[in-house]
Amino acid sequence: MSREALGASFRDPSGFVFERDGAIYRQINRGYAPHYDRLMSSGLYEELVRDRLLIPHTESSGEASGDGDAYLTIRPEKVSFISYPYEWCFSQLQDAALTTLRAQQTALRHGMTLKDASVYNVQFHAGRPVLIDTLSFETYQEGTPWVAYRQFCQHFLAPLALMAYRDVRLLQLLRVHIDGVPIDLARALLPSRAWLNLHLLLHIRVHARYQRRYASGPGAGARPRTIRKASLANLIGALESAVRKLGWKPEGTEWADYYEGDSYASTSLEHKKELVSGFLERIAPAVLWDLGANTGLFSRLASERGIQTLAFDVDPACVERNYLKAREARATQLLPLLLDLASPSPALGWAHRERASLLERRCADACMALALIHHLAISHNVPLDRVASLFAELGAWLIIEFVPKSDAKVQLLLSGRSDVFPDYTREGFESAFRREFEIEETADVRDSERTLYLMRRRRRAS
Amino acid sequence: MHRHWLLLGFALAAALGAAAPPASAAQLGAPQALLAYVDPGAGSFVLQALLATLAGAAVVANAYWKKIRRFFGGSSEPKDDESQSER
Prior knowledge:
The complex is a heterodimer of chains A (462) and B (87). Chain A is α/β, with parallel strands linked by helices and 462 residues long. Chain A has helices at 33-41, 44-50, 90-109, 149-165, 173-176, 183-189, 198-213, 229-245, 266-283, 299-303, 316-328, 373-379, 384-394, 408-414, 426-434; strands at 15-20, 23-29, 57-59, 70-76, 112-114, 122-125, 128-131, 137-139, 287-291, 308-313, 334-338, 366-369, 397-402, 437-444, 451-457. In chain A, 36% of the residues lie in helices and 17% in strands. The two termini of chain A are 29 Å apart. Chain B has 4 helices and no strands. Chain B has helices at residues 3-17, 23-26, 42-71, 82-85. Chains A and B meet through helix 4, helix 7 and helix 8 of A and helix 1 and helix 3 of B.
């Protein structure tokens, strides 16, 4: 029986990805065979895998898609969670860009080149960005340009420049533009001071101008001109310094300094850590989603126990700080990601099947929602029973903190608006969550009015 | 120290961006990658060829600049990171 390609795997004629019994396989089509053989025999594959630039794979003789064009099937190491660039922070996108350029430099040294530079080909695997598309490498022909130059500028350089020079939230343009931020749009949105950066002047501003000028093709009478390999390597080097020169400092947001501020008495914080550790010890989840993770203080209680932890937060500065800390510690089990739980990543792309929605990617055994409920219930006006149903869809276990109205943080949210939340009480909270969960344990956090709950889902969400 | 090259770069950028592109650029043909399924973009390709040459020139110029500075007894190591931007 023939296996169908996954929703995002159709653009490249070299092969496709399919799934069987929960494992991911990649078929290599006959047309790509010489390139694959070169990748494996030239030493490029070993070097890329050694430098952790490419996902390792094994050749799988027993599995075939049933498709007649097959040359070989490979089984890449499974990436535990597929994330998308609009869920990353600045440094995650920057590191992904550098991975792509390093892979291209390495490929050129082995007589091969990257035939695409899609940001979606990079995934975070054991804490580091790696290329997941083994079929991206093709034999380099002396004199040819880098066919993926435009794509690299759109997928990496333009969004990074917009984040660094205009506003970090412009990363979300990638949600709208499936093939990266159009160069002319980046040119229009970047401030004048961006043009003092020579790289941006050339790769964005002049680039946009050339695209407009040659919009109808290279023109009649054009004859092929060549780019020497050394020049191409220099261009990749220039792009690398263009990417490295961009920076964004995670400061000035309300949440990034949360734990440094006065939100918690140190005794409450320590007690809360003890309670959370105890709950984690008891339920021992394989995968934990920490929703509203801030800079990951509590996520680390899980990831340092070997629990694969996704630390979601709505604030780009928190995600940035969390990622920088995780990168420095070489954490393999912690992945910080950007998420607005009030409007999570939707399904995008062709037929809504190229990029999965957050719910389609759910994989948690347990969710943690500390100091989050008041933001959902009060700031976003989401009724408590709806919050409970979403959490029940996400995981079988829930560690959740209830923050009462009398808490200073809730008072702050309520100041200047009318209190239309008569059910926002501990009793109201418990009764709303009992529809979906059994309350297994309850503990008051010392020196605070807050309560921690350990809950277990009653029934599988449909 | 490397601001000289930065200025030279800006002058070249202005030349690239202003008026018509050089005649040689207009004669560049389409790329011929074997399994190119990604559209390289005609304008992107023309610009890439020019920038690749420019990047090469910057590397050579940078090397000479270092030699000149060494000859006059200056440090051979750049003090700031601007040499990076000249590649």
